[in-house]
Write a structure and sequence with these properties.
The structure is a homodimer.
Chain A (H helix, E strand, L loop, with lengths): L3 E6 L3 H13 L5 E7 L11 H6 L13 H6 L2 E5 L2 E6 L4 E6 L2 E6 L2 E4 L3 E3 L12 E3 L3 H12 L4 E5 L3 H12 L3 E6 L10 H13 L3 E4 L3 E7 L1 E7 L2 E4 L2 E4 L3 E3 L2 H5 L24 E3 L6 E2 L6 E2 L4 H15 L13 E5 L2 E7 L2 H6 L4 E9 L10 E9 L5 E8 L7 H9 L4 H6 L14 H15 L1
Parallel strand pairs in A: 1-2, 1-7, 2-3, 7-18, 9-16, 10-11, 10-16, 11-12
Antiparallel strand pairs in A: 4-5, 5-6, 8-17, 13-14, 14-15, 19-20, 21-22, 22-25, 23-24, 24-25
Helix pairs in contact in A: 1-8
Chain lengths: 452, 452
């Protein structure tokens, strides 16, 4: 049997997980693995970048899980600084460029793991010096460099997860920070009343949070001097884009590889392209399906990227694995406020045409009398009629957010809120009130369903 | 319709939950509710007593969720200092004694919520001054009083949850503490390798932990002077019994009410006695069933007591509710070590005749590079063949233990470890590595099943 060549475009979580799993199952005598990465880093934690900027994480290299050298020891031929500009799937060939020149590389199997790119609004001035997206580690390095020149005023465009994590990081670095958000609440993935708690916390650490304000352009004179909005100009020495990301799928689109309505690459459950048998894809560039709304979604998260890359690699290695889909679980920490969500928020349930009750319950993270007990609000969304748990949101202080995983596991198993009340969750005073906050919320929601 | 009388024997979590729920559904004009409590307190957190002794909880009254006066405002006639010595179910009558005398009280419906009592080994000297069980708040008050005379040396008999929590509390109060345990590991509800970690932590705070040592008697000269063991005598100024508890069901047994093999009162899912239609029971005095082993079990826990009392009260109030059973979830904190378990431990799986693989995975509570990341060991037990998750154990530092609830929810839903790998759990660097420790363990266990 002649040696096959697997080319992987993109050397972050998804691509490198695929590479490692394929290598574990097939030796170098059988399968050559070449990874083409346009940046300088492999397998790093993009989610950790805001914490590096904040100073929680000391060094850039702390974010790097595994270096190119380490992968090379496994006979994975990682080529950094290699930018792929064209895929010819029928011919089994990619065109790549590096400092050493350009060239065509043949493949038998291809993994596209090109990740996501920051959403860049269609406004003037985005290319000015001092405007940054924070998607890759290279972006993070640039922001750190920009902070060395001690800018005083920052504007963050967008109040999603990344935007808020960056806003807090910049406050902690001593900048005066304004966050501009077009919606009327921060973090539109949670319901308004949870968003309101987040707004209070942000303003509490001094962030100037402008809600319902649209950005019209970046004012620049060589470099950034301000952000023009429909509510006036906001002076700025540095501007960060926190508008979320979209699949970086243009290479695939150009090659005729099928993408879905979210512009993510479409794959089957084994992460194989729906249009090309010898193409696989994983990570932030793919589209996946939501197990509650049953819709195609694009959710860029390191945890999915790792899982999907692993699935692709196992299949490429001759094994069998599938990616089951997602339910939109996410967690973050902003200003000591822990925020988490899973399943459908009210807005998403509305969009899916579902009727539901949404109930919030306030409690404490530990027994009320126990030192360190912190407030926690648990909000549940349950379908009318069936009583099925559709979604959950948690906001609170230390020890609150990870409880979202119980709700995620419950949704994953299509539990009703009434059934959730019965689950034998752990209790001891340092960990929980005698009724865990999750159970209190389930009880209250079950009652609301009976009344409704 | 003439007014009915509900008598509840025992005014802690189970009894008072039943009273409150029954009252919510039926007014005082329809249902008279009389609670007979032999002690002086209602609705307190027995689980909090070790933390009160340790000094984490400042005041006794912090442990009291709701006073008799508060219940009386709800037309619940709480009579403290009332000891019931006889039940005549056929006649619908109880015999109660108080400082005010003795008397018979008629009932239409009866709830037995007499709780548990500490296991007292059959050894000489147990009645000596200075020997305490720590089951009720009254016991806790006595221990606090004993500590005021500044004893120097304590012996704790038994290294279960309560024993270890008390041992730590006494170390923090400045005593020299010896723990004597007949088994060869502390906390026999977890597997040996988890027990070994607990032993290291206990010895690390200076506890003299004697494993595999049997207590033969208490040496006393009026008051305690030492504990005789098969490994010699251990001097002691105070002795605490931490041998666990058993159902306090003798009143029910004497009245001919059916009890099960655990000596707990048998009830149906609505918490009604299996032998008497007008008798209900809830809390630490009942027997329940284990949803994994399908055996009758007695597990004394405030969380079950609350749920069962609520169920009994809803049914007594004319509603419909059931208690679903338990899976043995428990959590505690000893010496900054968080310990949790759910489902079956290896020993219990053996007893149930199940074949399984047991796999431990070491990880961190947060992303490895994130400040505050702590070690966590997750141990899973999965059935051969089906791959069904049978049990889980967690030991680690801050942020580790509450992850047990994900495993509990997975077991509750009869998930396989392979299915668990897919669950969309939350991830962000301050909360978890990109593969949550629970998922890492599930993956490793699934691999072991494939190999086995």
């Amino acid at each position: 049997m002649s040696r096959e060549r697997l080319i992987i475009v993109g050397g972050d979580a998804a691509g490198m997980s695929a590479a490692s799993q394929a290598r574990r199952r097939r030796g170098a005598d059988e399968l050559e693995i070449v990874v083409l990465e346009r940046g300088r880093y492999t397998s790093y934690s993009a989610c950790g970048i805001p914490y590096w900027i904040a100073g929680d994480v000391e060094q850039r290299d702390d974010l790097i899980v595994r270096s190119p050298e380490k992968f090379r020891e496994q006979d994975i031929d990682v080529r950094i600084g290699h930018r792929v500009t064209e895929l010819d799937v029928d011919a089994g060939r990619v065109l790549a460029h590096s400092d050493g020149g350009s060239g065509l590389l043949d493949f038998d199997q291809l993994v596209i793991a090109t990740g996501a790119e920051p959403v860049r609004p269609d406004i003037p001035g985005l290319d000015a010096t001092g405007v940054y997206g924070v998607q890759s580690l290279t972006d993070g390095v640039e922001v750190q460099r920009a902070l060395e020149s001690r800018p005083e005023r920052a504007v963050v465009v967008g109040a999603g997860y990344i935007g808020l994590e960056l806003a807090e990081a910049l406050v902690r670095r001593g900048l005066s920070v304004t966050v501009v958000e077009a919606a009327d609440q921060p973090m539109s993935t949670v319901d308004a009343e949870i968003g309101a708690q987040i707004a209070v916390a942000l303003r509490g650490i001094g962030v100037d949070l402008r809600l319902g304000v649209a950005v019209k352009g970046i004012e620049a004179a060589g470099r950034v001097v301000g952000v023009a909005t429909d509510d006036g100009e906001i002076p700025a020495d540095i501007v960060l884009l926190g508008l979320g990301v979209r699949p970086n799928s243009s290479l695939a689109v150009d090659a005729g590889i099928e993408c879905g309505p979210t512009h993510g690459i479409r794959t089957d459950a084994r992460m194989r392209s729906t249009s090309h048998q010898n193409v696989w894809s994983a990570g932030d560039c793919v589209e996946t399906h939501h197990l509650v709304s049953h819709r195609a979604v694009h959710i860029a998260l390191g945890t999915h990227a790792n899982k999907q890359g692993r699935v692709a690699g196992i299949n490429l290695g001759g094994g069998y694995a599938t990616f089951a889909g997602v339910i939109g679980t996410a967690v973050t920490r902003v200003c000591d406020l822990e925020i988490a969500r899973t399943g459908l928020a009210s807005r998403e349930a509305d969009d899916a045409g579902l009727e539901y009750v949404a109930v919030s319950a306030d409690s404490t993270t530990r027994a009320g009398y126990f030192p360190g007990a912190q407030p926690i609000t648990t909000r549940l969304i349950a379908e009318r009629g069936t009583g099925r748990l559709l979604g959950g949101q948690i906001v609170g202080r230390e020890g609150a957010a990870k409880r979202i995983d119980v709700l995620a596991t419950a949704i994953w198993n299509a539990m009703t809120v009434r059934a959730l009340v019965d689950v034998d969750l752990s209790y001891a005073p340092p960990f929980s009130p005698v009724w865990d906050p999750v159970l209190i919320a389930a009880r209250k929601t079950a009652d609301a369903l009976s009344d409704g």
